Amino acid sequence: PKTVAEFIAYSPVESQEIMLKLKNLIEITVPKAEGGISWNVPIYKHHGVLAGFSLAKKHVSFGIDSLTEDVRTSLAAQGYKTGKKTIQIKFDQKVPTAELQFLINEQARINVVKFNK
Fold this sequence. Notes:
The chain is an alpha+beta fold. The protein is 44% helix and 25% strand. The chain has helices at residues 4-9, 13-29, 69-77, 97-115, and strands spanning 34-38, 41-45, 49-55, 59-63, 81-82, 86-90. Strands 1-2-3-4-6-5 form a 6-stranded antiparallel beta sheet. Helix 2 (13-29) packs across helix 4 (97-115). The longest helix is centred in the C-terminal third of the chain and has 19 residues, at 97-115. It starts with a helix and ends with a helix.
């Protein structure tokens, strides 16, 4: 795939709704973010890497550098598996919109500060 839309369209049907929600959430939260394919997965950039997602066998993995311990703990309590910079969203789970929007805004802020130094 050469675009985020193609990546989603070529993915298994059970994963597409989550990826569409992630795509829309990123684009609404940071309208100037540019989406594309990097490292063979959808990545959005805004003054550097903003966020991205990838497909696994039974979940979609959302990646963002600004994932804090507080948010990770909150998401784990809601049943999401998290890593240092990733959140796994199983095909039967809802996208944790509020938490992800907070993280996307925070990463955009961090990127702008770094860019303007």
